[in-house]
Design goal:
This protein is α/β, with parallel strands linked by helices and 393 residues long. It has helices spanning 3-9, 23-34, 38-54, 147-163, 181-198, 220-235, 253-266, 312-325, 340-348, 366-380, and strands at residues 67-69, 78-80, 84-86, 107-113, 127-130, 135-138, 167-173, 201-205, 242-247, 270-273, 277-278, 305-308, 330-334, 353-356. The chain is globular, with a radius of gyration of 19 Å. Bound molecules: flavin mononucleotide (FMN).
Length: 393
Amino acid sequence: MSDTLKIEQRSQGVIHHDYHRGLGDLLLEAGKAMIPNPETRHRLLSTLAAVSDAIPPRSRPNSDLEKTIRFHDRSVPLTLGSPIMLAAGGNKFAEHLAGFSALGFGAVSVGSATSGPREGNPFRPRMHMLPLDRSMSNSMGLNNPGIEVIATEVDKALGACHRRKLALGISVADTPGIEDADKKIADVLATFRRAYRAADYIELNVSCPNTGDNRLDAQEAFLADLLREIMEARKTLAPKKAVLVKISPDLSARALDGNLQIIADAGVTGLVLFNTFPGDKARYLKMNTAEAHIPPVSASGAKGGISGRILYKNTLPAVQYIRRQLPKLAIFACGGVDHGSKVLDLLDAGADAVQCYTVLAYRWNAVRKMNRELLDAMRSRGIQSLDSHAPAA
Ligand SMILES: Cc1cc2nc3c(=O)[nH]c(=O)nc-3n(C[C@H](O)[C@H](O)[C@H](O)COP(=O)(O)O)c2cc1C
């Protein structure tokens, strides 16, 4: 049995993800029929954010959902209008950033950015819907316009975003294909330094399953060297900003503990849990979708990374486990968050914020609805505001 499944078995309690599907959800389904390519629909998300921001009344999350994240390493705190962040990949081109507050978000993790522009993987389609699991598989391959474009857009948008209590992070990734370890570290450091000047916080994406390279979180010695260099670089930069490492959900228990040790030794601020789950190991997820029905995303038959609801059963127990192991580390929980009650469960388990992306392909107005569900869940548990709420864990 895989260690991933052992983690799943530590999960207790009820998972909340049933919700009423309204007219907007029916229209979303109709939109899918009209625009069948998920990648095209995904590019419309930023346009939707811009339109939502332009059309009054501009909805902002309830002030009881505001949350200031104070980091243990005294990195600059983040002030979020909602604890729900857009996960990396949702806005790869840094477009219409301020508009994401009108969609209900409290932060956007922009990118992932690499040092130069990338087209991503050459084959199409690179995204597939897996509706039986309200999930998705993708193999985008880190398409992005490069750090200079992304950081410039973040620089331009930051003031407007802060006025809306929307924090901006940049997700930094290594450029696939660089073999030499020193050159790889220099590549990531250059991207990191530019991102650091622009963003409120930095995510280091060491877990992309879709580039053809070995993931960095599977190479412990290299990961330790990389994080040491990154954290040394941070000492030379002011002000001190949060640096979080985003890891994979399929690590064995030994590999997870190995990563946690490296991360703790390096003194990073926190973790993003998790990236997509490698589709080639989909059998461990016990999906409703038959493995044979997960479409390959390349001529080699590789299956991309799986995101969405099916991941949640690992996300919650992983947050609980890591909070116990490393109580001081900040945690942004990510993977299958599609209901406001899940947001509260994750915050109660010790997450500082949550991230989501795939739910946007399945629920109309998803984040504003999740904010309302979160408020309802807070009220029913007697919680007045998130800022005054201490996790139950
Ligand atoms: C189409 C797509 C592209 C993604 N691109 C990135 C990326 O560039 N960098 C990254 O760190 N994660 C990326 N992710 C992973 C998400 O940030 C997130 O970790 C994962 O989708 C799980 O969250 P979800 O279940 O809410 O979608 C991507 C996910 C999808 C579906």
